[in-house]
Automatic annotation (TrEMBL):
One of its GO terms (molecular function) is nucleotidyltransferase activity. This is Cytidyltransferase-like domain-containing protein. It holds the Pfam family CTP_transf_like. Keywords: Nucleotidyltransferase, Transferase. It comes from marine sediment metagenome. InterPro entries: Archaeal_FAD_synthase, Cyt_trans-like, Rossmann-like_a/b/a_fold. The keyword Transferase applies. The keyword Nucleotide-binding does not apply. Residues 10-68 form the Cytidyltransferase-like domain. SUPFAM superfamilies: Nucleotidylyl transferase.
Protein backbone atom coordinates (compact mmCIF):
# COMPACT_ATOMS: atom_id res chain seq x y z
CA UNK A 1 0.00 0.00 0.00
CA UNK A 2 1.41 3.38 -0.94
CA UNK A 3 1.89 6.00 1.75
CA UNK A 4 -0.38 9.04 1.55
CA UNK A 5 1.46 12.30 1.17
CA UNK A 6 0.74 14.96 3.75
CA UNK A 7 -1.01 18.16 2.82
CA UNK A 8 0.34 21.23 4.58
CA UNK A 9 -1.77 24.38 4.82
CA UNK A 10 -0.05 27.76 4.95
CA UNK A 11 -2.27 30.83 5.25
CA UNK A 12 -1.64 34.56 5.35
CA UNK A 13 -2.17 37.90 3.71
CA UNK A 14 1.29 37.90 2.11
CA UNK A 15 0.98 41.65 1.73
CA UNK A 16 4.59 42.60 1.04
CA UNK A 17 6.14 39.16 1.02
CA UNK A 18 9.23 38.94 3.21
CA UNK A 19 11.89 36.46 4.37
CA UNK A 20 9.57 35.02 7.02
CA UNK A 21 7.00 34.05 4.37
CA UNK A 22 9.70 32.40 2.26
CA UNK A 23 11.04 30.48 5.26
CA UNK A 24 7.55 29.35 6.26
CA UNK A 25 6.71 28.02 2.79
CA UNK A 26 10.10 26.33 2.38
CA UNK A 27 9.79 24.61 5.76
CA UNK A 28 6.20 23.57 5.04
CA UNK A 29 7.33 21.99 1.76
CA UNK A 30 9.59 19.63 3.73
CA UNK A 31 6.50 18.20 5.41
CA UNK A 32 4.35 17.52 2.33
CA UNK A 33 2.37 19.13 -0.47
CA UNK A 34 1.90 22.82 0.28
CA UNK A 35 -1.47 24.51 -0.05
CA UNK A 36 -1.25 28.26 0.36
CA UNK A 37 -4.28 30.35 1.25
CA UNK A 38 -4.00 34.05 0.43
CA UNK A 39 -6.47 36.32 2.23
CA UNK A 40 -8.68 38.47 0.01
CA UNK A 41 -8.56 42.25 0.16
CA UNK A 42 -11.86 42.29 2.07
CA UNK A 43 -10.68 39.75 4.67
CA UNK A 44 -7.48 41.71 5.18
CA UNK A 45 -9.53 44.84 5.85
CA UNK A 46 -11.93 43.03 8.20
CA UNK A 47 -9.15 41.59 10.37
CA UNK A 48 -6.63 44.45 10.31
CA UNK A 49 -8.80 47.47 9.58
CA UNK A 50 -6.59 48.34 6.61
CA UNK A 51 -6.71 47.71 2.89
CA UNK A 52 -3.74 45.71 1.58
CA UNK A 53 -0.87 47.44 -0.19
CA UNK A 54 -0.76 44.83 -2.97
CA UNK A 55 -4.08 43.73 -4.56
CA UNK A 56 -5.18 40.14 -3.90
CA UNK A 57 -4.68 38.84 -7.45
CA UNK A 58 -1.09 40.12 -7.50
CA UNK A 59 -0.35 38.61 -4.07
CA UNK A 60 -1.72 35.27 -5.27
CA UNK A 61 0.38 35.43 -8.45
CA UNK A 62 3.54 36.26 -6.47
CA UNK A 63 3.01 33.24 -4.19
CA UNK A 64 2.25 30.92 -7.13
CA UNK A 65 5.39 32.03 -8.98
CA UNK A 66 7.56 31.74 -5.87
CA UNK A 67 6.42 28.17 -5.22
CA UNK A 68 6.50 27.12 -8.86
CA UNK A 69 10.12 28.35 -9.19
CA UNK A 70 11.12 26.00 -6.36
CA UNK A 71 9.34 22.99 -7.89
CA UNK A 72 7.23 22.53 -4.77
CA UNK A 73 4.01 20.52 -5.10
CA UNK A 74 1.33 23.02 -4.23
CA UNK A 75 -2.02 24.64 -4.63
CA UNK A 76 -2.78 28.31 -4.04
CA UNK A 77 -6.12 30.04 -3.68
CA UNK A 78 -7.77 33.25 -2.57
CA UNK A 79 -10.16 32.74 0.31
CA UNK A 80 -13.41 34.61 0.86
CA UNK A 81 -14.28 33.11 4.27
CA UNK A 82 -12.20 33.20 7.47
CA UNK A 83 -9.57 30.43 7.38
CA UNK A 84 -10.78 28.70 10.57
CA UNK A 85 -14.22 28.17 9.02
CA UNK A 86 -12.74 26.78 5.81
CA UNK A 87 -10.44 24.29 7.54
CA UNK A 88 -13.06 23.20 10.08
CA UNK A 89 -15.51 22.42 7.31
CA UNK A 90 -12.92 20.89 4.96
CA UNK A 91 -14.00 23.00 1.99
CA UNK A 92 -10.54 23.93 0.74
CA UNK A 93 -10.11 23.38 -2.98
CA UNK A 94 -6.87 24.60 -4.52
CA UNK A 95 -5.87 25.43 -8.05
CA UNK A 96 -2.68 23.47 -8.61
CA UNK A 97 0.22 24.25 -10.87
Amino acid sequence: MSELKRRVLVAGTFDLIHAGHIYLINEASKLGDVYVVVATDDNREIFSGERPIIPQEQRLEIIKNFIEDRLIDYGAILIETPIMYTVKNKKLTAQTA
